[in-house]
């Protein structure tokens, strides 16, 4: 995931050397949360939130504080419809604790993970039950918006997003990002519906060789027309995700007391460390952690 790699360059001097030295790790391991979805049934809800299950925008019926939301809807119900903003707050706490412990493995692990979840929160289709257009006869739109358009035009995007900043209220910040994504859902779906009706049907798709397969995908002309209709939304959401990732890393480091990262040694994680991390990554089960997700 390029988001983590690009976020490294938003960091201050006290952090950037450490992250540059480990940039391959946090880039390669950004996909770990997606891999866990195949082995852990509890993982999927950490990536999205179906806000339309709670009424209409701005979804005032859904409390933003985790304990209030649990009291109103129950934890099982919330998990059923996705918990990404709360999960990001939890991951921030875990990353902060890793900085306090100066545990290199945990710092890298949670930096990679939180970057993935923040990127997911910036994708409009991660904020609706109609996540792949399956309810509006637009199946495949998720990969079209999230992958195909950036694949074709991402090299032209401006990834200079400035410097990471300290976030005073991280919970409010990530909810703001999620709500911005949710506000874009109608455009993501509606614009594609309009374009599909206007565009010559025989020019909407093309066939491309991918490895040993020849697959049908959205044509470059159709993708360019969609990007233009959306006023470069993909680039804007990517830029927002990159600076948010860097700022969350920076906030965790500041909240941990700005530990010196220059003397962290290369050492493999112990089996106990890996086992504990795997258990924590699966769920909320840690009373101390749950209580600290509140601001």
Attribute tags:
single chain, 295 residues, mainly alpha, P1 Nuclease, two-stranded antiparallel ribbon, 15 helices, 4% strand, globular
Tell me what the structure shows.
This protein has 295 residues and is mainly α. 58% of the residues lie in helices and 4% in strands. The protein has helices spanning 2-7, 13-21, 23-28, 32-39, 66-73, 75-81, 84-101, 104-121, 141-153, 170-183, 185-198, 220-229, 233-255, 271-282, 287-291; strands at 205-210, 213-218. It has a two-stranded antiparallel ribbon.
Outline of the structure:
The protein has 295 residues and is mainly alpha-helical.
Order of helices and strands: HHHHHHHHHHHEEHHHH
Within CATH, the superfamily carries the name P1 Nuclease
Question: Number of helix segments?
Answer: 15
**Anisotropy-based shape:** globular
Number of strands: 2
Instruction: Estimate nothing, just give the exact number of structural domains.
Output: 1
Profile the largest sheet. 2 strands, antiparallel
> What percent strand?
under 5%
Measured as a percent range, the helix fraction is: 55-70%
Structural class: mainly alpha
By CATH reckoning, the class would read Mainly Alpha
Rg calculated over all Cα atoms: 20 Å
């Amino acid at each position: 995931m390029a988001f983590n790699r690009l976020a490294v360059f938003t960091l201050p001097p006290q952090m950037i050397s450490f992250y540059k030295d480990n940039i391959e790790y946090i880039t390669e391991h950004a996909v770990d949360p997606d891999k866990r979805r195949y082995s852990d049934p509890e993982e999927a809800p950490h990536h999205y939130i179906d806000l339309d299950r709670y009424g209409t925008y701005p979804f005032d019926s859904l409390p933003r504080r985790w304990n209030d939301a649990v009291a109103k809807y129950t934890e099982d119900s919330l998990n059923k419809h996705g918990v990404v903003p709360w999960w990001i707050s939890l991951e921030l706490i875990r990353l902060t604790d890793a900085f306090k412990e100066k545990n290199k493995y945990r710092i890298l692990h949670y930096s990679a993970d939180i970057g993935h979840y923040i990127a997911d929160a910036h994708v409009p289709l991660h904020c609706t039950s109609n996540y792949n257009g399956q309810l509006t006869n637009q199946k495949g739109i998720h990969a079209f918006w999230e992958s195909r358009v950036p694949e074709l035009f991402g090299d032209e995007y401006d990834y200079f997003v400035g410097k990471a900043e300290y976030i005073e209220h991280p919970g409010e910040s990530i909810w703001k990002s999620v709500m911005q994504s949710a506000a874009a859902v109608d455009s993501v779906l509606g614009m594609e519906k309009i374009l599909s009706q206007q565009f010559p049907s025989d020019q909407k798709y093309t066939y491309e060789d991918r490895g040993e397969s020849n697959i049908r995908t959205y044509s470059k002309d159709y993708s360019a027309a969609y990007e233009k209709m959306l006023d470069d939304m993909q680039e804007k959401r990517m830029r927002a995700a990159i600076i948010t990732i860097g700022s969350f890393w920076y906030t965790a480091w500041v909240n941990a007391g700005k530990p010196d990262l220059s003397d962290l040694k290369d050492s493999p994680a112990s089996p106990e460390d890996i086992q504990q991390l795997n258990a924590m990554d699966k769920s909320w089960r840690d009373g101390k952690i749950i209580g600290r997700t509140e601001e």
